[in-house]
Amino acid sequence: MMERKPIKLILSILLVFLIIFMTACSQARQSPVTDKVSKTNIKMDTVVSITLYDWEDSTTIDRAMDEIDRLEALLSVQKEGSELYKLAESAGTAWIAISPETSEVLNIAKKYLLLSNGYFNITVGPLVSLWDIHNGKGHYPNDVEREAAIEFVTCGNLLLKEDEAYLECAGMRADLGAIAKGYIADKVKELLLNEGVEHAIIDLGRNILLIGGKPDGSDFNIGVQDPLSDEGEILTVLNANDKSIVTSGIYERYFEYEGVRYHHILDPYTGYPSDSGLASVTIVSDTSTAGDALSTTCLLLGLDEGMELIESLPETEALFMTTDGEVYMTDIEISLPLSYNR
Ligand code: ADP
Ligand code: MG
Description:
The chain is an alpha+beta fold. It is 37% helix and 23% strand. It is built from 9 helices and 15 strands. The protein has helices spanning 4-30, 59-75, 83-89, 100-115, 125-131, 143-154, 180-194, 288-301, 303-312, and strands spanning 36-43, 46-53, 96-97, 158-161, 164-167, 200-204, 207-211, 220-225, 234-240, 244-249, 254-257, 260-263, 278-285, 317-322, 327-329. Strands 1-2-6-7-10-13-14-15 form an 8-stranded antiparallel beta sheet, covered by helices on one side. Strands 3-5-4 form a 3-stranded antiparallel beta sheet, covered by helices on one side. β6 (200-204) and β7 form a beta hairpin. The radius of gyration is 24 Å and the shape is globular. The protein starts with a helix and ends in a 13-residue tail after the last strand. It binds adenosine-5'-diphosphate (ADP) and magnesium ion. The site of magnesium ion has 6 residues, from α8.
């Protein structure tokens, strides 16, 4: 027994050397391709992370984060003093001046109102406030409250001039929660492209926007979460470059009331969370604004109408999962077989 000790010691020392040697080798081999900088922050009520590949200067990311703050300060109706806040405050009384960015996103949102037959409706704000779904908490409204909120959604329209906006009746409220992150992701991409970035992942929660592919020319691999798994398991992995990948789901933000889950994507006609039979929709598109608006729209429209809409749009693909666990997808390249088996 005694004489085995030195052998053990020599083996341990050898092992330590071997590990150091291997680590050094792998670092040396990887360093040219893994030159990347990354930062993560909480913004827009979600985890935002930006990774630049083949890039060293992390101050580029600081400028991108500043751009997110600038746009959030314009577009978030929850932020006191924002243009959307002022718009709601002046509803039914006055037109307000808006910046080119706010004008652009409001105009795009109106386009999706038409495309979705009124389901994607940013003036759903009074219903969003009523349900107040936040961090697992919320308010289950009674019929009187719900009908009063629907009245504020339908009593008038959002009117737009080039640099002014107006909500037609008092009590109206426009909420850009379903499109702002996509719009902001596109603006961040614009900024990074201007800085010369060629390979990046802009991740604003479930809004992922890619600049190019990996520096070695291959695709990025983006995991799509299984909406029916409480542990956040991955449903599959998409291969993509230079695309936007946005997911909307009924599992992201919800609260429970008397044993039933109520989620945050609201049907403007019923005033209840959408009950379209879909658990999640992932959209692969060129811009993140389109992806964000379409993922919410399809979740509201349901499988058949949603699929029909996606097939009518160029350069747009989708992956739908129903609340029964069935998966339907258009032409999407995946690198992991669908792990879902129910
Ligand atoms: P997330 O912001 O969680 O990624 P979505 O992009 O699907 O998810 O947007 C959901 C948000 O959109 C809600 O929190 C709310 O602010 C807003 N919203 C809810 N219902 C609608 C609707 N019918 N049309 C437009 N916006 C909506
Ligand atoms: Mg959306």
